[in-house]
Amino acid sequence: MASSSLIRFCFSITILILLQSCLHSVVSAKKTYIVNMKHNQKPESYATHREWYIDHFQTLTSASPDSLLYTYETAYHGFSAALSPSEVEALRQSDSVVGLYEDTIYKLHTTRTPEFLGLDKELDPRTGLTLRLDFNFLSCLQELDRASENVIVAVLDTGVWPELKSFSDANMPDIPSRWQGKCVAADDFDPKIHCNKKLIGAQVFSKGISASTEAKPLQSPRDTNGHGTHTASTAVGKQVQNVSLLGYARGNARGMAPHSRLAVYKVCWDEGCAGSDILAAMDMAMNDGVDVISMSLGGGSATYARDPIAIGAFAANEKGIFVSCSAGNSGPSESSLSNVAPWILTVGAGTIDRNFPAYASLGNGEKYTGVSLYSGEGMGEEKVGLIYDMGNNSDMCLNGSLDASLVRGKVVVCDRGFNPRVEKGLVVKAAGGVGMILANTEASGGEELLADAHLVPTVAVGKKIGDIIRQYAKTGKNPTAVLSFGGTVYNVKPSPVVAAFSSRGPNIVTPEIMKPDVFGPGVNILAGWSGAASPTELVDDTRRVEFNILSGTSMSCPHLSGIAVLLKAAHPDWSPSAIKSALMTTAYTLDNTNSPLLDTFNYSLSTPLAHGAGHVDPHKALIPGLVYNATTEDYIAFLCSLDYTMEMIETIVKRPNVTCSRKFRDPGQLNYPSFSVLFGKSRVVKYTRELTNVGPVGSVYKVSIRAPSSVAVSVKPTKLVFGEVGDKKRYTVTFVSKKGVSSMKNEFGLISWNNAQNQVKSPVSFLWTRRK
């Protein structure tokens, strides 16, 4: 009898385990989807679209209410939910559903810059660097700062460290009355204490990442990562005096628009940033009343109709909200860009004129220069053994790859790549090494130099020097080295230089639109940091700092977002496309040696596929003379010129019964501030553009053309005369590929409209595709 009971008990346990396993399989089979609804088909029996979405979801799926993540109002028409395959199919069959697609997980794209950009100086009317606010000239940046107090910037990132002095509201007036946002409470975040007249909003969006991954995010807007605090303080941080990272880059730190308001929307976590959360945050930000949205994150999509950032940004643009996004850190590979929709400002990254030199002195008498932010006890002057590539993947300095008996007391040469740069130093330290030379390879950075706050004495060097040191370490007789550190130096030449990591064109979604648009400071940038994270973000690093130095297009994007705030304050009637045009057409392409821009990958000449229209020039952007404007109707005509179904277009445009009554013959016909010319079926490409006068009455411009020998370019008319402010004039450009040309590489040119006060420049990219 006892034996029978035991058998029944074991059988019951087995069944229970099987049931639990099956239940787990069912649950794990669910994925997160974003569902697009036919907004105009809402039955009158529902008071709101939200009620209809919820009822439709529950009726068709019989899913639990917890499966519904968000309903969207402004950025998107529809909802997001965790769905099983059968529930997905049920929704697909609904006549009220336009379409649905699986959620995307995006990644983050990870002081001196105000001086480098000239934002520390007052604007002098004698130089022409004056500002216009409702057509009254401002005389100095302080007045522009005051105007920017009415501009609200939304930063979608990892949250905020509110105690940072960069977010003080000292001397700030009351919050603009149109603000509808809020600060949410959490165990570590008290809205009454942590929000103020500067940091006016702080919200959390995590349902998508929780449903898509194993993440259990802390429901607090507090930044435990550091990335969000860095980007927010770069864009709008108040001036903080005498700051540094462990003694490096000491000085006064301030954001681009220190008097504007900050609203933080936490959408990113260690596991990434879910598209459904990003879309919900954009939806909320638009309804809250923001003016600029800054997003240093991205992924990629083959179409705009499946990209939550592109879809949300379209709605923002229609509401007059400027959207700035990072281009990505996948350079120097071609066609590696994120966030390429034409209604988004896509920002690349470059260096500034500040550096942190460090030196590797070898036993053969040679001394090589690299960079470092190491701040601990130095090595002294005595050289020690130098070692490289002892087998077992030791060249990469991966965890467990170094033999302590060989490494102890020596400097180790480590190849850059695979594991984080700062982690390699910990591997060396754990094995008993006393220093590291971090050497680039062709596949990891080339000649690009990025400084890190290493935990072991470290010098980072480019590929060429790295190859020399590697050879010496492997073949020299008793090779030795000693490392030393030079602190902070300024007025570095050449600068700016385009960062090797900055993602490149051509734009694979719409090759007829050149991307990136522009580039800005993104290498070794000092900005605010989280008190919960170390400067290296390594768990073993117990140091805490208020300011940190980072590199990435994540850093360049908020620079442009903050500068856009200044343009918005100076020209409140300008559209997002006008602001983008001003930033692009006034950008410069000569460095501080008056030479063409270079690329840090190999210090060859950069091209518009890396630097876009050039490096941002805030002063000139404020007085561009002419702008290329684009309306929502123009963007719809652009979408209609793509091979999109009407359902895809409706998903982006969010209008009932949208039609393609107006359609460009070619996507490149969009009134964009740059040109991307594809020679394929025809040797002749013709585009018409329209310029709007935002400068003086009676302005006259003449055209200037620069083109490669393989292309003939003509512009009609060659002179544009503008009467009043707001006058519009059109011109047509004809590009003709000369006979016999079949180049498979890009070539470049420039079309510029010039007078004594302004140069309105548009870069041109030419590509010869195979003719079908």
From TrEMBL:
<dbReference type="InterPro" id="IPR003137">
    <property type="entry name" value="PA_domain"/>
</dbReference>
<dbReference type="InterPro" id="IPR034197">
    <property type="entry name" value="Peptidases_S8_3"/>
</dbReference>
<dbReference type="Pfam" id="PF17766">
    <property type="entry name" value="fn3_6"/>
</dbReference>
<keyword id="KW-0732">Signal</keyword>
<feature type="signal peptide">
    <location>
        <begin position="1"/>
        <end position="29"/>
    </location>
</feature>
<dbReference type="InterPro" id="IPR036852">
    <property type="entry name" value="Peptidase_S8/S53_dom_sf"/>
</dbReference>
<feature type="domain" description="Peptidase S8/S53">
    <location>
        <begin position="149"/>
        <end position="590"/>
    </location>
</feature>
<feature type="domain" description="PA">
    <location>
        <begin position="393"/>
        <end position="468"/>
    </location>
</feature>
<feature type="domain" description="Subtilisin-like protease fibronectin type-III">
    <location>
        <begin position="669"/>
        <end position="765"/>
    </location>
</feature>
<keyword id="KW-0645">Protease</keyword>
<feature type="domain" description="Inhibitor I9">
    <location>
        <begin position="32"/>
        <end position="109"/>
    </location>
</feature>
<dbReference type="InterPro" id="IPR045051">
    <property type="entry name" value="SBT"/>
</dbReference>
<feature type="region of interest" description="Disordered">
    <location>
        <begin position="213"/>
        <end position="234"/>
    </location>
</feature>
<feature type="compositionally biased region" description="Polar residues">
    <location>
        <begin position="221"/>
        <end position="234"/>
    </location>
</feature>
<dbReference type="InterPro" id="IPR037045">
    <property type="entry name" value="S8pro/Inhibitor_I9_sf"/>
</dbReference>
<dbReference type="InterPro" id="IPR015500">
    <property type="entry name" value="Peptidase_S8_subtilisin-rel"/>
</dbReference>
<dbReference type="InterPro" id="IPR000209">
    <property type="entry name" value="Peptidase_S8/S53_dom"/>
</dbReference>
<dbReference type="Pfam" id="PF02225">
    <property type="entry name" value="PA"/>
</dbReference>
<dbReference type="Pfam" id="PF05922">
    <property type="entry name" value="Inhibitor_I9"/>
</dbReference>
<dbReference type="Pfam" id="PF00082">
    <property type="entry name" value="Peptidase_S8"/>
</dbReference>
<protein>
    <recommendedName>
        <fullName>Subtilisin-like protease</fullName>
    </recommendedName>
</protein>
<dbReference type="InterPro" id="IPR010259">
    <property type="entry name" value="S8pro/Inhibitor_I9"/>
</dbReference>
<dbReference type="InterPro" id="IPR041469">
    <property type="entry name" value="Subtilisin-like_FN3"/>
</dbReference>
<comment type="similarity">
    <text>Belongs to the peptidase S8 family.</text>
</comment>
<feature type="active site" description="Charge relay system">
    <location>
        <position position="157"/>
    </location>
</feature>
<feature type="active site" description="Charge relay system">
    <location>
        <position position="554"/>
    </location>
</feature>
<keyword id="KW-0720">Serine protease</keyword>
<feature type="active site" description="Charge relay system">
    <location>
        <position position="227"/>
    </location>
</feature>
<keyword id="KW-0378">Hydrolase</keyword>
